[in-house]
Amino acid sequence: MRKVELKPMEQMKYETIKKLVINNGNKLNAANKLGISIRQVNRLIIKYNEQGKESFIHGNRKKSPSLIITDEMKKQILNLYNNKYYNFNFKHFKEMLLENEKIKISYNSLYNLLDKNLILSPKAEIITKRKYRDRIQTKIDLNESLSIQEKSLIIDNNILDPKDNHARLPRKKYGGELLQMDASEHLWFGDKKTHLHAAIDDATGMIVGAYFDHQETLNGYYNVLKQTLENHGIPNELLTDRRTIFDYKSLKNPQPEYSTLTQFGYACEQLGITLSVTSIPQAKGRIERLFGTLQSRLINELRINNIKTINQANEFLQSYLGKFNKQFSLINDNIPQVYEKINSDTDLNLILAIISNRVFDRGSALKYQNKYFQAYSKNGDLVNFKHRTKAIVIKSFDNKLYCLINSVYYKLIELESHESNSKEFDLPVEKEKKKYTVPNSHPWKSDSYNRMIERAMYKSR
């Protein structure tokens, strides 16, 4: 007869039921002692009478859990992180495992697996980094050799006590009440640094616009603003950093009356948007923290989707923003919105424009970006202006050129350096004459047209 070993709790149940059966004791006292009902006591008595001591062994003893992570799966997860999903934070890595690799694992199990293999998350908190640092420092003090993982941890992550300087502020009450806007220079994709321009709604945490450009440019911010206007509406206020794109004051004359309204400031004024600037990063902590999140997630998403160019990156952003907002913003909290609708007659191409001052020369042409242009009326006629006539040149968002003179708009057409056709030496180009087709409603043709319809109806019967 084999020896039956019970765990402490199982042993207590066995001894209590055994004593109850032998002495024909009180079932209520046994139930109170074991913390179970009398019905369960009766079941245990039946098991004891049928199987004896073995019946008190738990049914799951020596059975593997259905959700156990096998050694093979652990190796696969570690291999995926080290080769494909490196630099992903652990939560993002868990999402990618389920979405792309069809591997389901809980966050705690994944964290314990990576932590056991000395893999530190890029988003690790201060206390976690301190734990790793103290573990490594203790080994160094005891002159113990460091493993390859520990050495790479020091080199790759530079374990130090990070400083969190972002002061937290309460969110605004309404969506569209305040947008924070900025740009982040980083190695987002490829081998050259680019600038990601973005705007986030302070109340909802939603990214309302994002755009990549080679530098931090007016064009980048215009694209972000245009996305916001088209997808949401006109916000109440924009908060940006104190750059000359947004705020410019003359150094010679710093008084307010000598301040110059920037191109972006002019566009905001036309739309009725309050433009505020600050030189303190903590004042716009929402956008600063957003870039920290995007640098942890977006870079890796761009890499695994093989994004190499700015055009590809901007196209990828259109689908990524919806996914990001659905997961991280408060769009499902029914926060009231104060975005204003754009009037149907508002031409954003002319509002989001670059404006310059120019003068006409003696040849009734003005110079813009090292090219000469002439003004044409709406009818397509060339309009000549006197020497030194002042004009405001407007380069629209869709790259069309206009000039404004005495409150009248003219289209600017580039003056060719040479004639495209010579009247003296080139044969005249004959224009193709459009053939006139008599309409079916013409009196001379209506009878034959009606007869054709009648024949068609007769054949279809």
Automatic annotation (TrEMBL):
Classification via SUPFAM superfamilies: Homeodomain-like, Ribonuclease H-like
Any GO MF annotation of the entry: nucleic acid binding
A GO BP annotation: DNA integration
Domain of life assignment: Bacteria
InterPro entries, alphabetized: Homeodomain-like_sf, Integrase_cat-core, ISNCY_transpos, RNaseH-like_sf, RNaseH_sf
Domain called Integrase catalytic: residue spans: 166-344
Record PANTHER family: INTEGRASE PROTEIN (PTHR35004:SF7), TRANSPOSASE RV3428C-RELATED (PTHR35004)
Protein name: Integrase core domain
Source organism: Haploplasma axanthum
